[in-house]
UniProtKB/TrEMBL annotation:
Family: Belongs to the Tom40 family.
Keyword Transferase tagged: no
Name of this protein: Translocase of outer membrane 40 kDa subunit
GO CC terms: mitochondrial outer membrane translocase complex; pore complex
PANTHER family the record matches: MITOCHONDRIAL IMPORT RECEPTOR SUBUNIT TOM40 (PTHR10802)
Any Gene Ontology biological process: protein import into mitochondrial matrix
Its job: Channel-forming protein essential for import of protein precursors into mitochondria.
């Protein structure tokens, strides 16, 4: 039996597959060599170069566009009535950890007792407050990057004689650029009833020149599913002088708020705030104008600080903070309402206790300069 010869036909050699990394780099090179992409990159680079050449600084936020007047000079968040005693215990400075006990008597706005604890680092800040009325408030902030911060706030108000109580939750994201600040905030967001409900706020403040900053704030709200949505936009402007700052806001309702802050000396600061509200329908001849002007001043002594303000509504308020010793501070607050013929007086004592090691850290930090909180 004769066997037939077996012949084999060789297959052509197969070229090795190109590595994935080489394919990706080739695709990126093709995109970078695209004329349109190159033109956009050059335009953006030229815009950034001109932007940096202006020497613009961060203008702050729309929410705090008048911070120098309303928070640094006026008594809006500092005035109180009755007797208060605050005992604070600091366990460490870095990271910051301390607890506080607050006792109050004779005030309808402040509960008789409140316990507060806070913890803070360069990335995390936690604060909780529980009072004798079983009302709870908590805040948690997290810094993702040096520019991006997420802030959450939760408040649970127990039912009492002052009201039925309730709960509130807010989520906020802040991005701080070299010459702008953008904020997005949501209050009580929910989709359980079908449509999206809650209050949503977006704001943007941009430095136009080294002295002038312009911004806007948009508000979208829908309190309940049965109610229709509403949208509003307000505008803000801020101008910085050598030793003065002027700001203005145009409200959605047509109202105007203007503030002017000036430093007269190293110890003395003054501020003026004007709030004008316009209500009614001008077509029907029912336009009503209301306005309140407030004048305030703050003077810093060596170991004390004095604030005073008066407005056109007939209110006069004063606040004196006196540090007796490094760990003890006394605060006196008084308010006189000429229109209502009423007066309020408040006296508070604050005592801070700390370990010797913590006190040494605080003294060294004070010697190095003013400490800026992480948030």
């Amino acid at each position: 039996m004769t066997s037939l010869p077996i012949t084999t036909t060789p297959y052509p050699p197969v070229a090795p597959a190109a590595p994935v990394a080489e394919k990706q780099s080739g695709a990126l090179a093709a995109v970078s060599n695209n004329a349109l992409v190159s033109a956009l990159k050059d335009t953006y680079s030229a815009f950034q170069a001109r932007r940096e050449a202006l020497g613009l600084t961060n203008p702050g936020t729309v929410e705090n566009v008048a911070k120098e007047v309303q928070r640094d000079v006026f008594l809006n968040n500092l005035s109180f009535s009755g007797l208060r005693a605050d005992l604070t215990k600091a366990f460490s400075v870095s990271p910051l950890f301390q607890v506080s006990h607050a006792f109050s008597q004779g005030s309808q706005q402040i509960p008789p007792y409140a316990f507060l604890a806070l913890y803070g680092t360069n990335k995390v800040f936690c604060q909780g407050n529980l009072d004798s009325d079983l009302s709870l408030s908590a805040r948690f902030n997290y810094r993702w990057t040096p520019r991006w911060v997420t802030k959450t706030t939760t408040q649970i108000q127990a039912a009492s004689m002052a009201g039925p109580g309730g709960a509130q939750f807010s989520l906020e994201n802040d991005y701080v650029g070299d010459d702008f600040t953008a904020q997005i905030k949501a209050m009580n967001p929910s989709v359980l009833d079908g449509p999206l409900t809650g209050i949503f706020i977006g704001s943007y403040l941009q430095s136009i020149t080294p002295r002038l900053a312009l911004g806007l704030e948009a508000v979208y709200q829908r309190p309940a599913a049965q109610m229709g949505p509403e949208a509003m936009i307000s505008y803000a402007a801020k101008y910085k002088g050598e030793d003065w700052i002027a700001s203005a806001q145009l409200m959605p309702s047509g109202g105007v708020q203007g503030s002017y802050w000036r430093r007269l000396s190293a110890q003395l600061e003054t501020g003026v705030d004007l709030n004008l509200q316009f209500a009614g329908n001008p077509m029907m001849g029912g336009m009503r104008k209301e306005g309140v002007a407030t004048l305030g001043a703050k003077y810093d002594f060596r170991a004390s600080s004095f604030r005073a303000q008066v407005d056109t509504a007939g209110k006069l308020g004063v606040l004196l903070e006196k540090r007796i010793v490094p760990m003890v501070q006394i605060t006196f607050a008084g308010e006189l309402d000429h229109v209502k013929n009423a007066a309020k007086v408040g006296l508070a004592v604050s005592i801070e206790a700390a370990e010797e090691e913590v006190m040494a850290q605080q003294e060294s930090a004070m010697a190095a300069g003013p400490v800026t909180p992480p948030f």
